[in-house]
Structure formats: structure tokens, C-alpha cells
Amino acid sequence: MANIIQDVVGVDFMTEKDIVAELLLTSKNVLNRYAAVLSDSTSPTVREILKKHLNQIIDLQGQITAYALSRGYYQPYNPAEQINNELKEADISLDLEAWKLDAGEEFFGMKRDTPIVRS
Fold first, then answer.
1. How many other C-beta atoms lie within 10 A of the C-beta of residue 23?
2. Which of 26, 66, 72, 117 is deepest in the core (most CB within 10 A)?
3. 88 C-beta neighbours (distance < 10 Å), count
4. What is the pTM of this model?
């Protein structure tokens, strides 16, 4: 996963915060998919298995969220601080190297010679 992100954004590392955010997004996506499949399932055996997995994913999501909160990556109880952090992240994202384009495609933004290094 890190190699894909590195290729896309042009940086050669992921911070711990990036990894935690990726885990949170992935677990949220998995939760949504399990819930959708569970709602369509008609077999009682399959439903029980899916419920068991869904509960495990919910527990994992809670653990990841607790970790992110303990490290100060997210400030859900301080909206002003969370918004400032999100704006900083958005600025960094906008300033990163553009997606690599195929021959014949045009890019209309600024192109950097070197990737941004975050601290």
C-alpha cells in the first residue's frame, strides 16, 4: 500500500498519522461492505458468520480510533483545532506532485521538481 501512495504523491514515506488514517478509512469501508452484504444475506449460517466478522471489525475500528485520539491525530472534541489540522493537510495535499499522467494527457496545475517533505 505504501508503494502505491508513494508513486501517486511522489513522496518516499508515510507518516504514522498517514497509516492510522488509512487504517481508519479502510476499516470504515470494510464495515460498510459487510453491513451491505449482511443485509442481503438469506442464509442464517452466513448471517451469523458475517455478524461475527462485523463485530470484530467494529472492535478494531474502536481500537484504531482510540489510538488516533491518544496520539493527538484527531481532535473530535475541539472542532476548531480539527478544522485547522484538516486545512493544513489539505494545503499539503494540494501542493504535492500531480498524478502521473499518460502520454497525451494534460495537467493544468503547478508541477514541482521535488516532492514536499513533511515533518
1. 18
2. 26
3. 11
4. 0.61
Phi, psi of 118 (to 5 degrees): -95, 155
The alpha carbon dihedral of 43, 48, 51, 53 has a sign of negative
Grid coordinates belonging to 117: 517533505
- Sign of torsion, CA 106 110 116 119? negative
| 62 backbone dihedrals φ, ψ, rounded to 5° | -65, -40
Asked if 8 and 99 touch (Cβ cutoff 8 Å), the reply is yes
Cα–Cα dist 77/79, whole Å: 6
Question: Where along the chain do its domains lie?
Answer: 2-74
